[in-house]
Amino acid sequence: MSFAWAKPYEPKNPLMKWVDERLPVPRLVYGAVGGGYPVPRNLNFFWNFGFLAGLALMIQIITGIVLAMHYYSYAAGAFDSVERIMRDVNAGWVIRYTHQNGASFFFAIIYIHIFRGLFYGSYKAPREMVWMLGVVIYLLMMATAFMGYVLPWGQMSYWGAQVITGFFSAIPVVGEPLRIFLLGGYAPDQAALTRFFSLHYLLPFIIAAVAILKIWALHIPGSSNPTGVDVKDEKDTLPFHPFYTAKDGFGVGVALLIFSIFIFFLPYSLGHPDNYVEANPLVTPAHIVPEWYFWPFYAILRSFTVDFILPAKLWGVLAMFSAVLVLFFLTWLDRSPVRSSSYRPVYKIFFWVLVADVIVLGYVGQAHITPINVALGQVASAYYFLHFLIILPLVSKFEKPLPLPNSITESVLHGEKQESAPFGLATTGATTAAPAAAE
Amino acid sequence: MATVSDTAQPVMPGEPVADAGEGKGVRRRDFINIAATSFAGVGAGVAVAPLLMQMAPSADVQALSTTEVDISKIQPGQGIKAVWRKQPVFIRNLLPAEIQKANAVSTGDLRDPQTLAERTKPGKTNWLITLGVCTHLGCVPLGIGEGENRGEYGGYFCPCHGSHYDTAARIRKGPAPKNLVVPEYSFTSDTVVQIG
Question: Under an 8 A CB cutoff, do B18 and A89 touch?
Fold first, then answer.
């Protein structure tokens, strides 16, 4: 329990009381997502995305378990089994479209969630562990998404597997033997497909476990908020239920509406038609690109074109992995004590430059390789690392932040006294705006 | 202006309260709450439907719903196993003696009373077509192949739990509750049977 005024669980129903005394799961739920978890009262809609990420994970796990009932991880039958799911299995098409587009849905949510964290300084003390567990989840998601993409055993699946495992061959000396070891062969085949299927089934449960650790770590200091100012007293918080269950519920409605547009009207808009050609080890598709959520990293990978001390291939792979790993060190790179960008005029500018830079990298990641695109990718890649390694430490040293509000309550107050009263206490002697019905 | 008190539900300051008195009538917030959760419940139900529907036999399984069998080579006293919906079907050309034996039994003595005529097609009483699936727990009974144990009643015998079926494949002894099932079938010609 994060704050002293968090309400303890007091079951009214005798059955719940009986259960709670023997197995305090109702207490756990109440304290985690119920009335017993006080949350800053000023959260905006960007705070919906943690809940949405959990929802996306559940959607992927449930649809994935169902798809695994019909999918064969057999190199000569995997492609056909996916087509059978689309044509013969009852409602198989909607389950597969949901899972396929669900990966994009999940990553879109996670990217907004990450940039929310970057904007509002969610990685700063005391939430460093929450942030780092998030980066772990992000890495696990990337591995899961990649291995899932291999399973339909189409052309993009096959060549994706070939290219991604090729990263490991960049490692000096042990690289090539390591690649062969990971694939269980000299090229992707049955052994690779079966192990990818097994791991693709396993990793989401690891993600779920890390997510539980992350929520656990989050609930010690409690949620951050748009001002970045610490919660000082009860006036600054509202119980999670009903206030944030309702707000998250509304967010879920909007998110599922957008998700449904993709599932039912644009199911192929985020995929590649080449993946509907069965895997052929003898022909590489002319234009090989990863899914959109890997584009920025693919651009960084491709930006290293000349050998410099180390081979270009190794530089590309190192830079690509570093682009994610640098996020682990954010707390120590950005030393500004002010969390929210709302009070950091200089950082705020660089934050938006970084957003633009990642979008440019994304564009380059999917574009054809032309001299202009390569140069653009090199500049954008250099800036990406410049932002984290040079700009962030300097800005946090020299920036003069704007004055912070004294409290969360003060920042949201508009002069109404009752608005500032703690939840539940306001009812004593408070007046209602609308006239009440006559007795 | 009225004082808000005795409200079971938390009330936000500034929220219009239609009836804050003795709990008469429906509060606007309660209505919205119930409407929203009901709508979400309907949505969840719709989302669950395909997740359950996928378990039912798929189109390629349904496509196996009929099987045609050529019976021209089956001599009297012989039988074959055919496959229908991935299940064995026993097709037996009964001997006159077997027909007689089956007709000699009084149906009143049977666990699942049925005459041979009810289990065959008119004019084709020598063709006994049943599923080769014991009605006890689903094993394949013996007796269709040459030299297999045909049980005490000369029909089929299930080795799993000892059910004996007579020459009309009716249950006579053992734990099975029903006669071997006669599937839907028709003679498309004198020598071809379509099962299913």
Answer: no
What are A82-130's pLDDT values in tens digits?
A: 999 999 999 999 999 999 999 999 999 999 999 999 999 999 999 999 9
Residue of B12, B29, B30, B55 best to disrupt the A interface, most CBs of A under 10 A: B12
Q: Which of B128, B184, B183 is nearest to B156 (CA)?
A: B128
Domain ranges of chain A: 45-226+240-288, 292-397
Cα–Cα dist A286/A233, whole Å = 61
CB contact under 8 A, A433 and B53: no
- Count of CB atoms within 10 A of residue A167's CB? 19
Q: Where are the beta strands (DSSP E) in A175-290?
A: 237-239
Comparing CA positions, the residue from A328, A344, A323, A333 lying closest to residue A392 is: A333
What tokens appear for A367 in the block?
A: 């574009």
Residues B10 and B105 in one domain: no
A412 contact B CB<8A: no
Q: For residue A1, is pLDDT > 70? A: no
Coil, strand, or helix at residue A290?
Answer: coil
Tokens of B130: 């049943």
Q: Are strands B171-173 and B185-187 parallel, antiparallel or unpaired?
A: unpaired
In CATH terms, A45-226+240-288 corresponds, of 3.90.550.10, 2.60.40.10, 1.20.810.10, 3.90.226.10, to 1.20.810.10
B49 interface with A at CB cutoff 8 Å: yes
A contacts of B19 (beta carbons < 8 Å): 436-437
Chain A residues closer than 8 Å to B53 by CB: 90-91
How many residues belong to chain B?
Answer: 196
Reported as type and span, the H/E element at residue A423 is none
Q: Are residues B14 and B79 in the same domain?
A: no
Higher pLDDT, A198 or A430: A198
Which residues of A participate in catalysis according to the annotation? 219, 223, 247-248, 291
Catalytic residue among B161, B184, B189, B192: B161
Amino acid at A265: F
